[in-house]
TrEMBL record:
Catalyzes the condensation of 2 ATP molecules into cyclic di-AMP (c-di-AMP), a second messenger used to regulate differing processes in different bacteria. This is Diadenylate cyclase. Its EC number is 2.7.7.85. It catalyses: 2 ATP = 3',3'-c-di-AMP + 2 diphosphate. Probably a homodimer. Residues 87-247 form the DAC domain. PANTHER family: DIADENYLATE CYCLASE. GO terms for molecular function: adenylate cyclase activity; ATP binding; diadenylate cyclase activity.
């Protein structure tokens, strides 16, 4: 016990401020990584990997040579498999890290313009829901979705509820696909979105809903879906689909999400600017 106490005391004495900083940084990275995969298929796969890692030393201690051999080989091959399987989550994380603070400020909107944009979208969605006209509308946020634009037709027109409704009229050239809202304008229509590969998704959901979830898994876009069968309005954000929105509820949640994201962008940019100013003063 005395030796353990002495060892612990010496360890504490040898801890420097850099060691503490190192631990905090690593903890923060693990925490952010967990939030990124929380409640996704990646979380279930991670649990399986942790189980394999725990079984390897146990099988070695119990002299289960065959099991130990299989687990080691599985873990070796699994590294490449994890990169392939976690591709959407890894891509989302790298896009988040690569997005600069000044670009985020540029993408931010003032309250009046944001409210006007949401009003036009909600009015169109409400009318489409009443007439049970199927629709798929993606609102670009901080992450660019240029690869989606290439699959459709560029319109780059002023956003209006009438034009948005007209695009989704059945049997018109651009109704069967997603319409993209970019910087308060109807930028493209008839776009093809990536379908989700999440096996946990409700099997009763149609192609529009699966496409909405798929894009939300790969970007921070807000995707609105109107069911042509029931007229139910749904919203996909960060890989999650919530349903049964009415006009006021949809407007409230869209404004809240956009406001929160703009606030985070400005806050992040402000913190970076302060850091740069401090560095300049030191120089």
């Amino acid at each position: 016990m005395q030796e353990l106490y002495t060892l612990l005391l010496n360890t504490i004495k040898n801890i420097s401020i850099w060691s503490v900083l190192d631990i905090l940084v690593v903890s923060f990275i693990f925490y952010k990584g967990y939030l990124l995969i929380k409640e996704t298929r990646a979380e279930q796969l991670l649990k399986g990997i942790v189980l394999i890692v725990l079984l390897i030393p146990i099988s070695s201690i119990l002299k289960l040579d065959m099991l130990n051999f299989i687990l080691n080989k599985t873990l070796t091959i699994g590294v490449l498999s994890v990169i392939i399987i976690f591709q959407p989550e890894i891509r989302r994380a790298l896009e988040h890290l690569g997005r600069s603070a000044f670009e985020d400020i540029h993408n931010g909107q003032n309250v009046e313009k944001r409210s006007e944009t949401v009003n036009e979208i909600v009015m169109a969605v409400s009318c489409l829901a009443e007439s049970k006209t199927g629709a798929l509308i993606a609102i670009e946020q901080g992450t660019g979705i240029g690869e989606v634009f290439a699959s459709g037709t560029i319109i780059d027109a002023k956003l209006s509820s009438n034009l948005l409704e007209n695009i989704f009229v059945v049997n018109t050239p651009l109704h069967d696909g997603a319409t993209i809202i970019k910087k308060n304008r109807i930028y493209a229509a008839g776009c093809v979105l990536p379908l989700t590969v999440n096996n946990l998704t409700n099997k009763k959901l149609g192609t529009r809903h699966r496409a909405a979830i798929g894009l939300s898994e790969n970007s921070d876009a807000l995707i609105i879906v109107v069911s042509e069968e029931t007229g139910v309005i749904s919203l996909a954000v960060n890989g999650r689909l919530t349903r049964n929105y009415d006009k006021e509820k949809l407007k409230t949640i869209l404004l809240k999400i956009m406001e929160n994201r703009d606030s985070k962008r400005v806050k992040t940019a402000g913190e970076k600017v302060k850091t740069w100013i401090k560095g300049m003063k030191k120089d």
